[in-house]
Amino acid sequence: MKTEHQERVEEFMKKAGQVVPARPIMCPNEILRLRANLILEEALETIEAMGFQVVLKPFDGAIEVGPQVREPDLVKIVDGCGDISVVTTGTLSALGVKDKPVLEAVDANNLAKFGPGSYRRESDGKWMKPPDHKAPDIMGLLILQGYGDKYFGQPQHAAPGFDPK
Fold this sequence. Notes:
single chain; 45% helix; globular
């Protein structure tokens, strides 16, 4: 099942000439690169709207949020969060994945992190999951949505120039 948000995102994608497969499938690398660039661009714009610099560490190439260098802009932060939602939901759509069951599973899993043994990390305030915490069964959700070959159980990947319709 798709959320109304995903339906609107897919309407935009189709108008833009983007492929929206009917079931989960690994799309070609050029589509993955487009989706990665869109996600990165929107995330960086949102971090900038929060007033922070993004810092590339010189030795290991890690990226981290650096110092706050300007006042946060509430309007731009909210716009950025909306844009991030659009591009990540569009990525699910480009992969043929219905978002509602995935979001429900991830939300339930996040709430389960508050079990015995969980704690707030002092260094950054992040809530840490208990040691026996299990990740959501994303593969199970993909299989329920039609991922994999019906006869051999192999994941289906898109060939170059694919048209999954």
